[in-house]
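Hey there, shall we discuss this one?
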Amino acid sequence: MIQTSAPGKLLLLGDYAVVYNNPCLVTAVDKRLYVEAEIIEADEDEIITPQVKESRFVLETIAYFKETFSIRQSVRIKTQGDFSHQVGLGSSSAVTVATLEALNQLFKKNLNKKQVFDMCYSVTLSIQGVGSGFDIAAAVYGGTQYYITGGKKIEPLNLSQLPLIVGYSGIKADTPFYIRKVAEAFKYKQEELKAIFISITLLVEEARVGLETGNFEKTGNCMTQNHFYLQKLGVSIPKLDEMVKASNQAGAWGAKLSGAGGGDCMIALVSDEKRDDVVRAIEKVGGEVIHVGLNAKGVE
């Protein structure tokens, strides 16, 4: 039996712009998805996925792997997770990566991390039709990455600390819906959206320097500006806006929604001195603070 695990993720900056060949900053979180895999004597594969949003990601990963390597044997896959798919920390990408790495080890294919990434990204696109792959990169490589759409660049950031607070809105976001919503708007307002993506990209580059030099005030300012552009894209919701505003008013360096918007999580960059104040501010407007470690290890 092979046992693997892969981390969830948080998008720090670059939301939506990364879908259109621009960079983002993403960090792996220490909430993980676990997979057990073994070869079985049976006509069909068997999957047991009690905590995964859809078994489809596991099924598609198995099918893609077996087709790629002409494998006829059946496998049993069991999954369990540290976190619910409800909170938007990337359970689908984590289980895809953990499943593919388990099959890689089980059938001794010696795939390197880039090959694992490429195969998992293909699986995600086959299911969702859209996506940049940053969540797959976080699950494969871990740490905090500077990432460009489709894995054109995956560069690790050397960070000593990343003092974030994560707030859950209590609302489950429909990621493919919001990505398609922006894609539809892009057809009719291409120049306007391109200008927004350029502005977001400049913030990503500035925030990268801020993170790598420990200038969290600069990074926080970039995050808050990034949230403003996501509002202009129409992907934020009042609950997330309230949580971001409350965080900033309580003394955070900066705050923004993280990921698709429409719900799920927001993040705030906070000093130790202001941490308790910001936690209380988020909770006061109805958010739930989720305690996660950041810069976590990739698939193992």
The mean pLDDT is 93. The longest strand covers residues 23-40. Residues 182 and 233 are 7 Å apart (CA to CA).
